[in-house]
Amino acid sequence: MFEFEERAVMVEKLTRVQRRQRETKEHIFRIAMDLFRQKGFEHTTVTEITEAADIGKGTFFIYFPTKEAVFGHLGEMLTEAMSTLVDEGIRAMVPIPALIRQLFDVSAAWHENNRSLSEQVVMSGLRLGPVMDADASNQQRL
Predict the structure, then answer these.
(1) Measured between alpha carbons, how far is 104 from 40 in angstroms, rounded to an integer?
(2) DSSP string, 9-32
(3) Burial class of residue 104 in the structure, from the number of CB atoms within 10 Å of its CB (0-12 exposed, 13-18 middle, 19+ buried)
(4) Cβ count within 10 A of residue 113
(5) How far is CA 48 from the centre of its chain?
(6) Average pLDDT, the chain
(7) CA-based torsion, 142, 34, 127, 121: positive or negative
(8) d(CA 123, CA 61)
(9) Cα separation of 89 and 29, whole Å?
(10) For 96-117, what is each residue's pLDDT tens digit?
(11) 119-135 pLDDT, tens per residue?
């Protein structure tokens, strides 16, 4: 499984404000993901997310311009985890075919363990088209 939740992020010198902003975005993200798992993406409102996260709607929109942007953040996290996996494999001189198999195995395991979210991401992407394509930087990184 992608371990983006448990992976130690490079230690950066962040100000107190930057740390708080990162924590707030992560809190909103986790609450939204929990609600998406419980109720489904389509049946979860921004109001429900903000109430569960105990924040105002304005705060939500500072970090995520739309509800759909939460999935974009998920994509960023998964892309970062995959990128780290590839970088570590290359540094360890893992043969490319083995590295690709590992990448697909890890990806398949994440999707299997997060089937509901995976299906919702795919379905929302099919309906939202341009919204999900707006974050093409993830695709380019891969």
Answers:
(1) 26
(2) PPP----HHHHHHHHHHHHHHHHH
(3) exposed
(4) 11
(5) 19
(6) 82
(7) positive
(8) 23
(9) 29
(10) 899 889 888 888 888 888 888 8
(11) 877 776 655 444 444 45
Structure tokens at 29: 């993200």
Structure tokens at 20: 């708080």
* Amino acid type, 57: K
Question: Which two structure tokens, joined as six digits, stand for 50?
Answer: 């903000």
Distance of alpha carbon 138 from alpha carbon 82, whole angstroms: 11
Q: Measuring CA to CA, how many Å separate 5 from each of 26, 39, 80?
A: 10, 22, 11
**Assigned token pair, 66:** 């739309």
With a CB cutoff of 8 Å and minimum separation 6, the contacts of 11 are none
Residues 6+ apart with CB under 8 A from 3: 81
Q: Which residue has the tokens 């371990």?
A: 3
CA atoms of 46 and 125, how far apart (whole Å) = 18
Alpha carbon distances (Å) from 62 to 18, 36, 133: 14, 20, 20
